[in-house]
Design brief:
By secondary structure, this protein is of the alpha/beta class. The chain has 11 helices and 8 strands. It binds pyridoxine-5'-phosphate. Pyridoxine-5'-phosphate binds next to strand 8 and helix 10.
Length: about 240
């Protein structure tokens, strides 16, 4: 059964609506951890639309599980990561105008840059994961970079409305997981997963961790954060997996 990483970016999104002090991501992180989260995930975006630098320092102090920082390979972001020293950094592509991360990191086209950032973060003892599409060539390229870990982008599967297409994208994730495991990579997955589509992905053998944000925070508005995390944890931790 996979572990659950909870992305709390949108706690900060809510705070930034009024540019105030509440709700606090650190407070949310503790609630997530005490209700089943195996790691806390945040994305320091270049435009700082939700998580800010100071959130990272606070989170690094209080998080007891694992702090996974999603980040682009931009120079100033890499410098901040080296100062904060999260347990893990997940390299993602980033476009300023996107609503959320669109597509995986193109490791093939950005090989040199990605390797340079991987090495720099590695010198600070930060475990590096690459967020990539479930594509054999990207996975091979990630392996060549030297990372131990990847996160497969599940967005295409999550967004597909047509049943056959959804099945096809699910199969794509399954095959990519199998391929990556066979060449010795640790495989995580995430993006667009929710209470209705997560089970099929959670059942894929070999996926170690699912990183889920938006759907949990949306549900938290209705049922509370503790309950929302518990429900997701129960869904992905079903014994039959
Ligand atoms: N994994 C990565 C690498 C992401 O960039 C995101 C979005 O920040 C997620 C997982 C979580 O996606 P969602 O908010 O759609 O659950």
């Amino acid at each position: 059964m996979p572990k659950l990483g909870v992305n709390i970016d949108h706690i900060a999104t809510l705070r930034e609506v009024r540019k105030g002090k509440e709700p606090q991501p650190v407070f949310a992180a503790l609630i997530c951890e005490t209700n089943g989260a195996d790691s806390i995930v945040v994305h320091l975006r270049e435009d700082r639309r939700h998580i800010k630098e100071e959130d990272l320092y606070l989170l690094k102090k209080v998080v007891r599980t694992k702090l996974n920082l999603e980040m682009s390979v931009a120079k100033d972001i890499v410098e901040i990561a080296c100062k904060v020293k999260p347990h893990q950094a997940t390299l993602v592509p980033e476009k300023r105008k996107e609503l959320t991360t669109e597509g995986g990191l193109d490791v093939i086209s950005n090989f040199k840059k990605v390797r340079e950032v991987f090495e720099k973060l590695g010198r600070e003892k930060i475990e590096v994961s690459l967020f990539i599409d479930p594509d054999k060539k990207q996975i091979e390229s990630a392996k060549k970079i030297g990372v131990r870990m990847i996160e497969l982008h599940t967005g295409r599967y999550a967004d597909a409305e047509d049943k056959d297409l959804k099945e096809r994208y699910l199969l794509e994730i399954k095959k990519a997981t199998e391929f990556a495991k066979n060449i010795g990579l640790i495989v995580n997955a995430g993006h667009g997963l929710n209470y209705y589509n997560v089970s099929a992905v959670a059942q894929i053998k070999g996926i170690e961790e699912l990183n889920i944000g938006y759907s949990i925070i949306c549900r938290a508005v209705i049922v509370g954060l503790a309950e929302a995390v518990k429900e997701m944890k129960a869904l992905i931790s079903d014994d039959k997996y």
